[in-house]
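User: Second chain of the day. Same drill as before.
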Amino acid sequence: MERTAHAYWLRSPGSGEIRTVTLDPPGPAEVLVRTLYSGVSRGTETLVFDGRVPESQYGVMRAPFQEGEFPGPVKYGYLNVGVVEECGADADPGLAGRTVFCLYPHQTRYVVPADAVTPVPEPVPARRAVLAGTVETAVNAVWDAAPSLGDRIAVVGAGMVGSCVASVISRFPAARVELIDADPGREAVAEALGVPFALPAEATGECDIVVHASATQEGLTRSLELLAPDGEIIELSWYGDRRISIPLGEAFHSRRLALRSSQVGALPPARRARRTFADRMALALDLLADPALEALVTGESRFAELPEVMPRIADGRLPTLCHLITYDGTDSGRTRAG
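Assistant: Same format as last time:
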């Protein structure tokens, strides 16, 4: 007997397709998951879709369950929520029937190690849980930024990552937090998150910390301008194969400014001895109990539409933060004679 599923693959840069895949039965320490929702992470997945991952970063940019190689064919993605349908003999039987998050690509069903899934807390709707991977990035960035009581903080770039950071970091007591974006339409997202919004020219300066997530040269330059003396930028943007320039002359040295990267692939040094990746993911899912984060899910399409939807997301014709992919009725999951 043979079990099949369907997966979205990038055939070559700019062109995707749905492929039929064969699933093995779950091994002793594995689970079979039926996907309910996946999310398109617009920034990173657009770079992958356009073939803009530099060759030097092929290894670093691999998703946990990626198949194929950059620039393509490749099966890529990492925001997946589903229901555990089968558990192997050694897997926790309590996972059966649970809604779980997994860093898996867009696929109707899949088999993974049981420790690769994280149960979604009861207060978190499955559709909102697709944001867990992005909120996890935000948690890592906040750990890197290490804000203090009363800090003056700006988040530049109100996309999916920046908005998640603003939501998380605004919970610090007495902190002054402002979400900044060149698109005035993002003010509605900031308002839903309960975070003050500003256009770049109107942003409040003298910041202790600026988290930059706009993925633009202009945004990074403005981030430098917003810092107080001895202030620090936490750089979350990933530019792929693009080269950017920023003014490290002017007041950069005299004001003793700092620019530091943050990347979700590693835990911050101050947390590595006391936190695991599983701890970080569980915390991200707990934070998603906040219904305000629903504002980041700004579009929805059926799985079968992904080959037509991805080009529109990549070129901006379909403006979105997190684009939700739905799977109801997509795949029967029944076995058939081989």
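The helical segments are 42-49, 126-129, 132-145, 160-169, 187-193, 217-226, 277-287, 306-314.

User: Great, on to the next one.
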